[in-house]
Design goal:
By secondary structure, this protein is α+β, with helices and mostly antiparallel strands. It has helices at residues 12-22, 24-31, 34-39, 46-63, 93-102; strands at 2-11, 77-81, 87-91, 104-114, 117-126. Helix content is 41%, strand content 32%. A hairpin with a 2-residue loop joins strand 4 (104-114) and strand 5 (117-126).
Length: 129
C-alpha cells in the first residue's frame, strides 16, 4: 500500500548560483549525507550531482508527509545506486528507525534531468506484514 507520493523539480542553474555564492563545498556540506560526501569529490558534474540529490530529498520529505524536519533531514537522506545503476535511498540510522516506526518499508526513487532541470519522483510504500 502506498504511504505517500512526492515530486520535486529543481533548476540546475539555481544550485549553480548557490555554489558560486557560497562555494560548492559549503553547499555540499549542507545537502549531502555522510555516504554521499564520500562520492562527492569524484562527481564529474558537481552541480548536477547536488541538484539531483536536493530534488530527491525534497521529494522524499513530501512522500513521507513531513517536509524537511528531523529526522527527515538533508543529511539523513542519502542517495546511492544499486548494481544496475538505479538510484536508491540510503538512510541514516535515525531515519531508518523513524521509517520503521511509521510502517514505511520501502521508498522508491526515480530521477530525470534535462538541460537545466532535474525532476525527482518518490513513492513511500507501507511495509507488508
Amino acid at each position: 500500500m502506498i504511504y505517500g507520493i512526492g515530486t520535486d523539480l529543481v533548476t540546475i542553474s539555481r544550485i549553480g548560483k548557490m555554489c558560486k555564492n557560497y562555494g560548492a563545498n559549503a553547499v555540499a556540506e549542507k545537502i549531502l549525507s555522510r555516504i554521499e560526501s564520500l562520492e562527492w569529490p569524484s562527481a564529474s558534474n558537481p552541480v548536477l550531482f547536488l541538484a539531483k540529490r536536493f530534488a530527491a530529498k525534497e521529494a522524499f520529505a513530501k512522500a513521507v508527509h513531513t517536509g524537511l524536519r528531523s529526522p527527515v533531514s538533508l543529511r539523513n537522506i542519502g542517495i546511492g545506486h544499486d548494481e544496475l545503476g538505479r538510484p536508491e535511498f540510503i538512510c541514516e540510522p535515525a531515519l531508518q528507525q523513524w521509517l520503521a516506526e511509521k510502517g514505511i518499508g520501502k521508498v522508491h526513487l526515480s530521477l530525470s534531468d534535462e538541460i537545466d532541470q532535474v525532476v525527482a519522483f518518490v513513492i513511500a510504500e507501507m511495509s507488508i506484514e
